[in-house]
Amino acid sequence: MAQADQIAVGGAPEGFDACLVLKEAARAGGPVIHVARDDKRLAQMAEALAFFDPGMAVLRFPGWDCLPYDRISPNPEISAARMATLATLVHRPPARFVLLTTLNAATQRVPARAVLKGATFSATVDARIDEAALRDFLARMGFAQSPTVTEPGDYAVRGGIIDIYPPGAGGPVRLDLFGDVLDGVRRFDPATQRTTERLDRVELAPASEVILDEAAITRFRQNYRIEFGTAGSDDPLYEAVSAGRKSAGIEHWLPFFHERLETLFDYLPGAPVTLDDQAAAARAARGQAVHDQYEARRHALTQKAGGSVYKPVPPEALYLDEAGWARAIRGRRCLAFSPLSQSPGPGVIDAGGRIGRNFAPERQQENVNLFSALKAHIEARMEAGPVLVAACSEGARERLEGLLEDEGLIGAVALRNAGGLGLHGLHVAVWGARAGFRGAPE
The domain containing residue 156 runs over which residues? Predict the structure, then answer.
């Protein structure tokens, strides 16, 4: 990566970094990829973005909730959410949005864009529908048949009614068939079975990254034999895939099912990337964990222990190493946030944000009124501009307003989001910020 593309951004404490992501989205005029350290930081960033700009479209691409080279599959809801996001990026992305992901997700290869473009099923009300083709699509795309649909990736068939829970946040859909004609489509609540919306058209995307069609099964068998040699009767994975069945943990052999894999960054060519604080350290820890898990599996292959064999995919086939990461973000504008201020220089800027006061000294002194100190701090800060006090709930906000009024800070303006923030004065809002910060003057 060229030095000019990689920028270390100091003075970007938590909360203020969301403002910087939004500013970068405005500068780019298009999508921005933000890579969080973990799921917790992803959720915090999503909450902060919603507070500072409720109108900004935010897509989430979570990582698997299982260890590398595990014997279990990712949670079906997570798999469905990942595929829904990839399908959105391929078919109908918003004009401007922030894609939130984690280091675990960003450093793992995904099905190529061409797979998502070709792996869709659509039907229109009053048009003919091939029920056999629909069932075949659902089976191949990772949907599981069940008596009732309860989570993304489920489908149920009852006579001329087919319930499908596709990836995404919309909820399940019910297809009413009259013979071979789609008589109606409605979205419904899986808990109450009540209709929530009527649709004219339904579009389905894969629910899993592993697609078990004939070509994928043949490809898996060939790649598996090339990598590990002939499989014996003690290899339940090979036998299950050969029979067209999914096996627990099958996703960990994802490269064997596809002609090629891409990265999440390939879905958004040229989009700028912003990185959480300590992202480099977290990426190194992730790489070490992948290596350790792989070596443990390789070592187990040499032992004559009981149970089925586990033949791991080479790490570079599924995960990005340092060189792969560098290639993935090469040529992009990449901002690496740090909460601490930094001296500007080549490849380094200071955003001007500073970590807020935490009142730890006052908390440790019994003879000091904590809220009197808070009042003095707020009044001093209001001389320079507006002050926002955030509470974690409506009840906490009301209690905090009362405490501030007891100290003489009357007339605080309650906000739903940062859009109502004035140029001066005291404001209160519900936002689960873990710590305070003060931003740059602009």
Answer: 121-204
